Amino acid sequence: MFSRAVVRYSKQLRGQDLSEFLQTAAGRFDARFVAQFEDDLRSSWGYATTCNAVSREAGGEAGIEACRALAVRVSRLDNTRMKEISPSALSLFASSFGRDPSAECQAAIISIAELCCDESFAFDELQNQSQALLVNGFSKWPDEESCGEATEAIAREVCGARLSEYIPQNLANLVNGFSKWPEQAHCSQAAGLLAGEICRRAARRDGLFDFNQQGLANLVNGFGKWPEDRCGKAIVAIAKEIVARADQLPDFTSQGLANLVNGFSKWPEEEESRRATAAIGNEVSRRAQNNELRGFVSQDLANLVNGFSKWSNEAGCRKGTVDIAAELCRYAVLDASLSDFHPQHLANLVNGFSKWPDEAIPARAAGFVGSVLCRRATRADGLSDFTAQHLANLVNGFTKWPEQTGCTEAALAIADEVVHAEASRLSSFSPQLLANLVSGFSSRPEESCRRATVKMAGEVLSRADREGQFPAFGSARPGKPGEWF
Questions:
Q1: How many CB atoms lie within 10 A of CB 430?
Q2: Tens digits of per-residue pLDDT, 392-441?
Q3: Which of 1, 69, 189, 452 has fewest C-beta within 10 Å?
Q4: Cα 163 to Cα 215: distance, rounded to the nearest angstrom
Q5: pLDDT at 468
Q6: Are 347 and 389 spatial neighbours (Cβ–Cβ below 8 Å)?
Q7: Alpha-carbon distances of 66 from 40, 47, 293, rounded to whole Å
Q8: CA dihedral 445, 451, 457, 460 (to 10 degrees)
Q9: Other Cβ atoms within 10 Å of 124 Cβ, number
Q10: Dihedral sign for Cα atoms in the order 160, 162, 165, 169
C-alpha cells in the first residue's frame, strides 16, 4: 500500500509539492520499512519501486539516505537469498543505486552484478526495460570487473532479441551503458545491431521523432566509442534529425550539446555532421548572448571547442568557439587557477582555439590557460598529471600565439618538464607524440626548447639501438611537422 501511494503521487505531483512529498516518504520508508527488508523479500518489488522514486533528485538528501540504507541490506544478502528477489526488482534496485556513488550503493551494485554473472540467472525473465535499467546501473562503475561481466552477459541477450520491440529510452540506455565497455565482444556486437535499428527507424517518414533530447545525446555519445561503419551511419542519421529539429536545441542540456558535438566530430567528412554541429554552435552563441554559458561545466566547454575545431571554416563553429573563449576569460578573472579544469580540458581548449589563431578572444583565453599551466608546473610533481598527448596538443597550440606572454611561458614550462623528465616517462611517449612535441619546440629559439628537442632525439636513438631500426613516425614527410631528421 505504501509503495503504491509513493509511486502514484510521485507521478501526479510537481515542483515543490513533489519534493516535499518524496522527502517525507523517504524518511518514513527508512524508519519503518528498510530494517524489515531481509524478512520481507517477497515484497521486494514494493521496496524497489519506492527506492526508485525517492532516490531521484526531488527526493533530496532524505531519499539518498534511504537508498543507501537499503543498499546496505541488499549487499548483505548471499546469492541464495538474492535469487528470491525478482529480476525486475533487481533492475530497479540497480538503477536506483546507480544514482549515488557511495560505497554502500557500490557494494549493492556489485552484489547484483555478481548474481547476473551466475549461469542460473533468469535472463529470460528480463524484459527490455529491465535489461536497460541493469545496464544503466552497472555503467556507473565501469572499473568494476563484475559490472563489466554482467553487462557483457546482458549484451549477449540483446544480440538475440527483437530490437523493434524496444522503446527509444531503453535503446538509448543500452547503447550508453554498453559504451562503457567498448572492447567487450558482445557489447560491441550489440552496439552494431542497435545502430542498425536506429538507422531503420530513422528511415521512417517521421524519423526519430519519438526519441527525446537526452536519448539522442546518449546515443551519439555511446556510438562514438565504436568507429565501425554501422555506428557511424547511426550517428549521421541522428545528425540529420538534429538539423531537422534545430528549433529544439534550446531544450538540450549543456552536457547533451557537448555529447552531440563530441560524437559528430568523429565523422567530420559527413555533411550532416557538419550542419548539425554548426547549428549547435549557433545555439551556444544564443545562450552566450543570454548569459547562459555560466551553467556549462569545464568538460562540456572543452568538448564543444574540441568538436567545433573539426570545422574551422564553419561560421557557427567559429562563433560558438569565440563565445566559449569569452566565457573562459570571464571564468579566469574569478578563478585564476581554473581549478575545475583538468589537464585534458585545458589541452582540448588550447588545441581547439588554435584552429582560429587570428581571433583575438581565443588568443586571450589561450594566454590565460598558459598562465595556469605555468603555475601548475611549479608544483612539487610539476606537470606529471599531463599525458604526452596533452603536452603535445598544448605545445603545438601555444605556438600559434607567439605574442601572448602566457603562451610562450607555458611552452617553455613544458620544455623544461621534458628536459627534467625521467627516462621511464619519455619511454612511454609514442613515436608520433615525440615528433609532435619536437614540431612544436622547433619553432621556438629558447635554450630550453633546444634542450628538450635534443633529449627527445636521444630517446629516439635509444629506441633505434634497442629495436635495430628507427621508430615509424606516422605519415610525416620531409618539411612537414613530425619530420625532424
A1: 15
A2: 999 999 999 999 999 999 999 999 999 998 888 888 888 888 888 888 88
A3: 1
A4: 16
A5: 64
A6: yes
A7: 17, 11, 35
A8: -140
A9: 7
A10: positive
Any long-range contacts for 384-387 (C-beta under 8 Å, 24+ apart)? 385/343, 386/343, 386/347, 386/417, 387/343
> Do 235 and 272 contact (CB within 8 A), yes or no?
no
What is the pLDDT, as a whole number, of residue 253? 96
| Residue 170: closest CA among 199, 128, 210 | 128
Please name the residues in contact with 467: beta carbons below 8 A apart, sequence gap of 6 or more.
Answer: none
Tell me the pTM: 0.88
Residue type, 377: A
**pLDDT class for 52, splitting at 50, 70, 90?**
very high
Residues 6+ apart with CB under 8 A from 470: 460, 463, 464, 485
Report the C-alpha gap between 45 and 23 in whole angstroms. Answer: 20
Does the pLDDT value for residue 227 go beyond 50?
yes
Determine the longest span between alpha carbons in the chain, in angstroms: 78
Mean pLDDT of the chain: 92
Sorted by where each begins, the domain ranges of the chain are: 1-125
